[in-house]
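Pair request: fold both.
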Amino acid sequence: MVGAVPKLRAHIRADRTTSGARGRALRIALISALVPLSLTLVQCGKAPNPAALAANSQANVQTNVQVVAKTNQQVASSDTFEDRFPAPQFRERFPSASEGFLQRQMSDFSPKRAVQQQPQPEQAPYRVASLAPQAPYQRPAREDLTTLVSMKSSAFPYFGNNPASDAPFLNISKGDRRGHRSYSGRVFWQDETYSDNRVLMHVPEHFDVRKPGVIVVFFHGNGATLERDVRDRQLVPQQVTDSGANAILLAPQMAVDAADSSAGKFWQAGGLKRFLEESANHLARLTGDPNSARAFANMPIVIVGYSGGFLPTAWSLEVGGISDRVRGVVLLDAVYGEMDKFASWIESHRSGFFVSSYTRYTARRDRELMSTLRQKGITVSEDMDGPLRPGSVVFVETGDGITHRDYVTRAWTRDPLKDVLVKMSATPSLALTRVASTNPSASSR
């Protein structure tokens, strides 16, 4: 037992020696790991060493160059980076001019300098609210306006009475059709002859509603249409334009292409007044100035009746409702009757003029009317050489070479309507202004 104890102690010492050696080794290893870490933590609070950074950067660049070179060597045998990832083009990032967005320059967003605007020769056909005085309205440039307008107050259709007989105007029926038997005994059907309510309106290019002007109301004769005869053959709109007078034309369609002089709605009391009131609104729209309707509604009137147009002319003077606005009456081979109505208007309206030009077909009635007027003490002239003045009464007989069919274009002179308007505009007291020169070629037609 005594010998065993020393041997046990020897083992204990050996274990302690080994454990101490292991502890020392562990402490040395721990210190070795902590010392570099503590140095690193200390350096975190200090500025980096430039020399160290340069060395590291150079090393990194060399490493990157080696990597890129190695990568290029690897991909050279197949495809390139540009092949696999093509660079985006400009058109793929921004739309072209033809696409949805508008391309702008930087100058578009820079402040703009005020630019002095030059005055425009023509102003827009509207008014702008302003505290300053407004410039006067200026009509936009245009050409002659000639058009056909449907109007309720035009001569036809007419369903009233014939004042000559106080019987219904449409005095013939056949099934559903209604018609009128004329004085000659011929029947004209309503749907063919008395259903056109259009009016030919003509506004010359030079017409100015702000200046004194006149409305010419033209009643055509038998067997006529507005387009074929009044406009194209008799050249009534052209004569108005060529006169240079500040005048416009209204020509209602009477019986369509028929030997009939019926006056239709112009037989009725106030018929001419309603016709001109409705026309004023249409003329205002036609000329593009809505404010001009009032001027048209008060403008003086000249009534021209050719051949069978004497009947609506006479009744318009008698019962039309605005005979005081009539500044003149012109009859072109048209005194076939109603002399009492013409004589009454001439006697009671000495501020207007009266002209009747005639052929042998109407000579007897014209001479009868002259005699009646002379008996009333009214001076009558028998030529158109002098000017037209308020109160002028003129009868002009034309020779045998002048035909009734061509009378609207050739009577005492070429284009007689034009001649009347020229003479009328030479007299300021007749309230008509001549705003354009006569067309030199007009007299050679």
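--- second member of the pair ---
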Amino acid sequence: MQRFIGLMSGTSMDGIDAAMVYIDDQGEPSLEGSLGHPMPDALRRQLWQLAHADCVAFADLAAAEEAFCQCQAAAVNALLKQQGLVAADITAIGSHGQTIEHAPYGHVSGAPPYTLQLDNPSRLAELTQCSVVADFRRRDLAAGGQAAPLAPIFHQQVFRHDERWRLVLNLGGIANLTLLPPLTLQDAPLGFDTGPANALLDAWHERHHQQPFDAQGCWAAGGTVDTELLERWLAEPYFHLAPPRSTGRELFHLDWAESRLSGRETAQDVQATLAELTAASVAMGIEMACQQLNAPRDIDLIPCGGGARNTDLMTRIERRLPQARVLDSDALGWPADWLEAAAFAWLAYARIEHLAGNLPSVTGASGARVLGGIYSR
């Protein structure tokens, strides 16, 4: 048996999610513990500025990386203390790092693709005295893939059903899906980023309320959807690209959203329309995935990520997917809030065991690849 800690900081940049995953001798994972470690406001602002800067100084990157690494180490140590364990009890940490920029199509036409995660696994190994597995994305990118999403191979491991079609919907800053055919079909899963989930909702809410998110979607629920604005947003070519595809804040940021405003909208109606944009683009993505794999529409829908707790957002999504049967990931043994962090714990296990960590049917890579580098304690 082995224990791994997965660390995830997503596009919301609101904290470090840490998940402890136990892998038994048959390779079956289970969640043993989890916690969220808040991101200091100063670090969050620093990371936000780096992610939206046209030009950065190396010293600024180094300072942010050190502060981020200290935050990661604090999350690991807090989780070890919570579970009554020490560093020697952990086989390895799986560190995703903080994405600063993701450009699988290159910065401009004809430029090489790249993806940049702020991370320092060497420093994290020193601070925690645990081995660290990191840099998961670039090997898939080198093999011609999108380097995202990476969680679908873990979703396959824990959620695939013998007879039912299942779809895992991760509602983080960006929404992504994993469509899992029944095991009886032996078909490969499909997964991709559908577009924004919480990124635009959170940014717009913070601008107008100085709070990082709209709890339960209450503000959005009180607004009215502007159908003309929604149509202008949905005309974005990304929503109509065939998979494999992935995206991030590089495309879906407030400047993108505001450039399509008429100036007559109220702030609350914009929030409602942003929520509807997430629901509509998710539904479009699910329809695209189902068509590609010839899947029925009465799938099992498993929401996860922070957006799964947003009552208004989930109501909008369910309204657009009337045939889907919503399942609670918590009841399936994997709480919605910790699924992404758990995925990187499992990816660390895959690297240690020299197992493939990508799904070419998802990322478009030329083949299965072992992902990540090992930084020993």
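Observation on the second member. The longest strand covers residues 92-103.
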